[in-house]
């Protein structure tokens, strides 16, 4: 099974690495890090990842994983990722996104009229691009699976393992990675965080998106 993990400058590393750790260890998986060029890609917090192939070289994959970015508007404007998604999505078995990666799926026309989720700060922006926005942590619509912000990528990947390899394998994977979250604070969503914190976070994120 060929899985393409999309790289681009300024992406959020955990959006990619969380699903990678869940999916790349499954039986029969060949993982590819695909980017516009073969040059190393620097994530938003400085992690550097080397592509193993390029958009021009890889024209199909069984599974596509698209991470998000705090600078998602700049990535949309560049257009390279969305153009590649338009090419590979029709033959992919599963097309997935994490966080604001959903805006790239929407830009490629994949989410038009479909239910999808994303980071809470860009729900309106995703709706404006034709998606039917959900506040759920993971949303599946046919062959498309979207995850909410950053850490939800692990949930999305475990969901995908269950769909492809079965529930027992997904539970085994969850156990092996010891995924049993017990966060020290109840501030992980705009519904539970204090209003003033949500306003501050929204302002900070808007400043980083351009």
From TrEMBL:
InterPro entries: Class_I_gatase-like, DJ-1/PfpI, INH-QAR. GO terms for biological process: regulation of DNA-templated transcription. Residues 2-161 form the DJ-1/PfpI domain. It comes from Saccharothrix algeriensis. Transmembrane segments: none annotated. Pfam families: DJ-1_PfpI. The lineage of its organism: Bacteria, Bacillati, Actinomycetota, Actinomycetes, Pseudonocardiales. This is DJ-1/PfpI family protein.
